[in-house]
């Protein structure tokens, strides 16, 4: 990994169930809210200038909910691929999450370039996906071994910033913990064995927010944000709508393209 890289990692960390808010019942099944935290992390194999941040703030960026003020402005829309180990129906959930972010700014933010024959288990370390030329989405069926992270972590977004502008993102990948969680439509699918169902569209909205340049937003500042540091998981639980605050923050980075394309969002409220 080049020494010019600045890589920031966000992780969704599930705490012990005994500390969680539980007992919510939907579709006849128990579900619970999972705190998600940007955790402090030190990779023993990473060069000294590869950093991670618990709050997503870097190089003096201090806007609420924004970690990269320039986003992908240096490269244009994010060219991305998905691992061929991710089923097409799951890719559809990802596409819907992408469409939600694009509707918020009235412009194209992503260009899908199909699948690649790579799985998360093909990488030997957490940051290794950044060494190729693909902005990839990977299911890790050997999560603990290939990322070195706890089984409790749902997914991780890693990114590389431009050496000319530390506020501009030039490369990113998202890795999903498919070893310990089941991803799909939480409104119609159920967990299997010890794997809890996680709504893929909801999780993708959150992780794509990080990939685009957003950081966590405290619940007390915007309780309906998809970037809140907590997520309901389990049968029937999902968060698929941006808050007015999410829309405002993403527009601070990318502006507004076609105003007519976002007209409906201008009157969006914060109620579900």
Please tell me about this protein's structure.
The protein has five helices and eleven strands. The chain has a single domain (7-255), classed as 3-Layer(aba) Sandwich (Collagenase (Catalytic Domain)), CATH 3.40.390.10. It has 272 residues and is of the alpha/beta class.
Itemize the secondary structure elements and their pairings:
Layout: E1 7-13, E2 21-26, E3 29-35, E4 78-83, H1 88-105, E5 110-116, E6 135-140, H2 143-147, E7 153-161, E8 169-177, E9 181-184, E10 196-199, H3 200-212, E11 230-233, H4 244-254, H5 263-266
Parallel strand pairs: 4-5, 4-6, 6-8, 9-10
Antiparallel strand pairs: 1-7, 2-3, 3-11, 7-8
Helix pairs in contact: 1-3
Number of strands: 11
Number of domains: 1
- Please provide the ordered H/E string of secondary-structure elements: EEEEHEEHEEEEHEHH
Question: What would you say the CATH architecture is?
Answer: 3-Layer(aba) Sandwich
Count every helix, treating DSSP H or I runs of 4 or more residues as helices.
5
Global structural class: alpha/beta
Beta-strand content: 25-35%
| CATH superfamily annotation | Collagenase (Catalytic Domain)
**Helical residue percent band:** 10-25%
Query: What is the overall pLDDT average?
Result: 76
Largest sheet data: 6 strands, mixed
What is the highest CATH level, the class?
Answer: Alpha Beta
CATH third-level topology = Collagenase (Catalytic Domain)
In angstroms, what separates the terminal alpha carbons?
44 Å
The coarse overall form would be globular
Radius of gyration: 17 Å
With strands numbered from the N-terminus, the spatial order across the biggest sheet is 1-7-8-6-4-5
Low-confidence stretches: 1-62, 267-272
